[in-house]
Structures are given as structure tokens and as C-alpha cells.
Amino acid sequence: MISEVLGSSRKIVIKVGSNTLAHPDGSMNRDFMKSFADQVHSLMEERKQIIIVSSGARIAGLSTIGKWQRKTDIHYKQALCAIGQVELMDSWRKAFATHGVHIAQLLLTREDFEDATRSLNIRNTLFTLIDEGVIPIINENDTTCVDEIRIGDNDNLAALTTLLWSADLLILLSDIDGLYDKNPKEHADASLLELITDIESLKRGLVSGSANSFGVGGIRTKLEAAAKVTGAGIPMILANGSRSMVLQGLVSGTVKATLFSPEKQV
Ligand code: ADP
């Protein structure tokens, strides 16, 4: 199923989570970034168009200015993201430069998606970049983001980008193989759900959450993202970014993941 969906998708948004981009000690996982860039480049050679949504600015900031580890003040947090964003993009630039591919940075807020003129400008910029073979890399603009205009997580940012660009597919790369019937980090007997067609009833299960139902953690925002895109007829894949050659594995069907399908199975 997943390999068919990937095979028929031309415009793909891929979101990479912080856990995938950083080692457990907080340093940037440059091996992952290099391998990911290799895989994205192979997809581009198959005439696929890719937009990346990249987390990791805060972690990159912390590994740059380690002595700010204990600063909890919001302005320090925003300053850390501003520092880290440069490091993050520098790492992405180097990873793609080996393939002669340019990258572009877009820092967005919720207001940008809500305002018709701004979202049209973003859309036109994305189309221009993609037409010229440049890879747009999107992150939330943490510097300007107070709570009122924050999207708050890159899963939802990636879903909004998918809708804005009218993509064919959204892929979220996290540190787990997909959606499980319960949090796999707490329950050894959790089993992977490979196909989801009814996200609304899953989300209701989350709200009433008991020890035996879905864990919450970062999975809630992934279900919100899935609801947004499948509601518009676009499939979403949740996969494990730490699996070697994950994108090619999804294409060939050798890597297991969860497909959120907009098509109700009968
Ligand atoms: P990322 O930073 O990659 O976006 P998060 O840490 O926000 O990822 O979310 C992924 C985490 O959600 C998993 O590592 C897992 O511990 C947790 N989780 C909770 N419930 C589930 C579930 N039912 N299935 C899969 N993961 C779950």
C-alpha cells in the first residue's frame, strides 16, 4: 500500500522531527542529514518534488551555546532558536551541496497561513523554488511567535504546508515505526497499526485516554496532522527516520510504517 502511494505521489512534504535530527545527547545527527539528503536527491531524480519541514533549531542552538542549557526565560528560548536556525540550515546546506542542490529557508507563523495575501505569496515562492529545483526548508518562526500566533508543533505546520502547496503526500519522520495501539515506549506488547482510515474515532480514543488506550506524547499532533490532510483527500505516512534508508525502504516496501489513508476501506 505505502509503496503504491509513494509511487503515485509527485509532490511530497517530509517533516523531520527533533528526535530524528539530534542524537540523544543533543548534538546534531549529521550522518542522518547526509543520508536523508542522499535519499531526497534520489527521489528528485525520479522527478519527485520535495519540501522539507525541519525541526531542531532549539537543539542546534543548545549545542552551539551550551552554557544556555538552564535558561528558561522565553527570550532566551527564542534567542536560542534564532542562533540554532542558522546552524540547522548550515547543516542542511552542506548535506545537499554534495548533490549540487540549493536549499531555501522559509520561517512561518500561523498568521501567514490565515492571511490570503501572505499565503498566496508563500505558495508562489514555493512553486518558484520547486520549479527551479531548489528545496524549500520550512520551520516555525520562533522569534516572532508568541502563543497567539504560534502553530506550536511542526506536525501541524507540515500539514498546513501540505494543504497550501496542494501536495500529494505528507511523510512525518519520527523516532518510532508508526502509530501503535499504545505507546511502544511504555508497553512492550504494543502493536503497529499499518493502515488507518478512521482518524476521528482514534482521536476520540485519545481524549478519553486511559493507561490501555493510545499514549498521548507527541502522537496527538501527528493525529491532528493526519486529520487535516486526509480531510482534504491527501494521505499521510508516519515512519521511523532512524531506519537506514527509510525513504527508499518505504518506496520498495521493505520498511514498515503507518499509512493514514483518506480512502475509507469497504
Ligand atoms: P518527533 O519529535 O519525532 O515529532 P515526538 O516525540 O513528538 O516525535 O512523538 C513521538 C513519540 O510519541 C514516540 O516516540 C512515542 O514515545 C510517543 N507515543 C505515544 N503514544 C504513541 C502511540 N500510540 N504510537 C506511537 N508513538 C506513541
Plain-language structure description:
- This protein has 266 residues and is an alpha/beta fold.
- The chain has helices at 2-8, 18-21, 30-45, 57-64, 74-97, 110-114, 116-131, 154-165, 199-207, 219-231, 246-252, and strands at 11-16, 49-54, 103-108, 135-140, 169-174, 179-180, 192-193, 195-196, 236-240, 258-260.
- The strands form 2 sheets. The protein has an 8-stranded mixed β-sheet, with helices on both faces.
- Helix 9 packs antiparallel against helix 10 (219-231).
- The longest helix is centred in the N-terminal third of the chain and has 24 residues, at 74-97.
- The mean pLDDT is 90.
Are there runs of 5+ residues with pLDDT below 50, and where?
none
* Overall body shape: globular
The fraction of residues assigned to DSSP E strands is 15-25%
Give average pLDDT, whole number.
90
Structural class: alpha/beta
Bound molecules: adenosine-5'-diphosphate
Q: What string, H for helix and E for strand, traces the elements in order?
A: HEHHEHHEHHEHEEEEHHEHE
Helix content: 40-55%
Rg is 18 Å
DSSP summary, beta strand count: 10
Characterize the biggest β-sheet.
Answer: 8 strands, mixed
Distance between the termini: 15 Å
Walk across the major sheet and give the strand order: 3-4-2-1-5-9-10-8
- How many H/I helices? 11
